[in-house]
Design brief:
By secondary structure, the chain is mostly helical. It is built from 20 helices and 4 strands. The strands form 2 sheets. Strands 1-2 form a two-stranded antiparallel ribbon. Strands 3-4 form a two-stranded antiparallel sheet. Helix 5 crosses helix 6 and helix 7 runs antiparallel to helix 8. It is elongated. It starts with 7 loop residues before the first helix and ends in a 15-residue tail after the last helix. About 1% of the residues have low confidence.
């Protein structure tokens, strides 16, 4: 439809797999799975529910009669009871036991946890792919010297591969957070209207053990190890803030990466992928704008701001529950996941196709390297009998003059020529140029990169050996 607003996260950016998780079909099918799990558990704990009724529910688990539910909701203004009614139309023998003892949050909250869990698994998979792509890039360029920057001012050299390890390290922290949150995901279970399980205590004739067992049974049937031990009517909304905090962390990492790529593309040292027929600018045909990295930064900003929603929602819940979370959750949680899905698609795509212009990288480094070699030059002159303080002052004076020539006159760096012409240093231009081997000034960058990839990254990715690396195609 072209006359109705549609979220660009759904229409332009996120993948089908993630979009399905937050679809009505996923939600309502999960509701039915939960109603089946509830009926089965109640049957196993001795309530008057027959296997025939359960089989009838299972027979219609996926063929949802949406039209019936939608018509019913117009009448009763309650989505859960409308779907209970619609399920009962299809299952006349079982309609009396559907949702027995439960509240709306039984299906609503448990479904939310299930969807967030599955969405985090997609995020985990794409994080692994991004880390693998960057690791290959880092390995390839682990020994290529490049100008490093502090305050975006030229600083002691590093290597292109070592710089990439900084991006990888951020993603490893995100992967660790995802794994931790996934390990603690629990269902709400069946807790009743205020979390006391009063309705189930009534159903089970005061048997407290059966009230405890029903949560365990439901969790197992839905593929979970446990339910929250205590709750109000809902699971603690702090879970949503915990989940989105992980997503915001990924957004932070991606934003840092995208900013670095944009700056490197400005320097013409490294570029993101650029398609053969891609247009960089509507006005300036020669331009190759870093559009994908810019989009990563833009979407990341959205997620980092969106994390405030569950924080505020969790902080403002009253006692056992209020409903001011509902509309906010419907927006903030799905949109955060869809945005992070898009961000990671971009991350995978960009990191897989980064173009390094070695000659430009080397030229930039060599232009600044004479300044960085001055300490070595000075120490060598001291070894030959020079005065350290006097030599320091001479190097400072020559450096200022060379810097002025570069900045004010637009000329090349002539610091080496100035030092060679100064008898206090007792060194020729040829000898000075022999000192300026870029590899001598990168410290342990190549070794650090190799150790990091072989030890830290390899250990983090070991559990994912059987997982295929995602390839992300960016269409828009």
């Amino acid at each position: 439809m072209r006359d109705t607003y549609e979220s660009p996260l759904s229409s332009r950016y996120a993948d089908k797999e993630m979009k399905y998780l937050f679809s009505p079909d996923m939600k309502f099918r999960t509701w039915r799975r939960l109603w089946i799990a509830l009926a089965e558990s109640e049957h196993e704990l001795g309530l008057n529910i027959t296997q025939e009724q359960i089989d009838e529910l299972k027979a219609h688990a996926d063929d949802i009669n949406y039209e019936v539910a939608e018509e019913r909701e117009k009448l009763v203004r309650h989505d859960v009871m409308s779907h209970v009614y619609a399920y009962g139309v299809q299952c006349p023998n079982a309609k009396g036991i559907i949702h027995l003892g439960a509240t709306s949050c039984y299906v609503g909250d448990n479904t939310d946890v299930i969807i967030m869990t599955e969405a985090l698994k997609i995020v985990e998979k794409k994080l692994v792919s991004a880390i693998r792509q960057l690791s290959a890039f880092s390995e390839k360029y682990k020994s290529l010297p490049t100008l490093a920057f502090t305050h975006f001012q030229p600083a002691q050299p590093t290597t292109v591969g070592k710089r990439a390890t900084l991006w990888i390290q951020d993603l490893l922290m995100d992967l660790e957070d995802v794994r931790y949150v996934l390990s603690g995901m629990k269902l709400l279970g069946c807790k009743g209207t205020t979390g006391t399980q009063a309705s189930f205590l009534e159903l089970f004739d005061g048997d407290h053990e059966k009230c405890k067992q029903i949560d365990r049974l439901i969790a197992k049937k839905m593929g979970y190890d446990d339910c929250f031990a205590v709750s109000g009517q809902t699971y603690s909304r702090k879970l949503d803030s915990r989940v989105l905090n992980v997503l915001a962390g990924i957004a932070q990492s991606a934003s840092k990466f995208s900013n670095d790529i944009r700056l490197l593309q400005h320097l013409k040292e490294v570029e993101e992928p650029f398609e053969k027929n891609q247009i960089g600018s509507s006005a300036m045909a020669y331009k190759r704008n870093p559009m994908r990295s810019e989009r990563m930064g833009s979407l990341s900003r959205y997620v980092m701001v969106d994390v405030l929603n569950p924080y505020i929602t969790a902080a403002t819940q009253w006692f056992e529950r209020t409903l001011d979370d509902s509309a906010n959750k419907r927006l903030s949680v799905p949109e955060a996941f869809l945005a992070v899905d898009a961000i990671l698609n971009l991350y995978i795509n960009v990191s897989d196709g980064l173009v390094v212009y070695d000659k430009v990288v080397t030229a930039h480094l060599k232009r600044e390297l004479p300044f960085m070699a001055t300490e070595n030059i000075m120490m060598d002159a001291v070894k030959r009998g020079g005065n350290r303080q006097e030599l320091h002052e001479r190097i400072r004076t020559h450096s200022m003059a060379a810097s002025k020539r570069i900045k004010e006159d637009g000329e090349e760096n002539d610091l080496l020529q100035r030092i060679a012409a100064d008898p206090a240093f007792g060194v020729t231009l040829e000898e000075l140029e022999a000192i300026l081997v870029p590899e001598k000034y990168v410290g342990r960058a190549p070794e650090q990169t190799e150790d990091f990839l072989k030890e830290t990254v390899a250990a983090a990715l070991a559990p994912y050996e059987a997982m295929e690396t995602e390839k992300a195609e960016i269409n828009l």
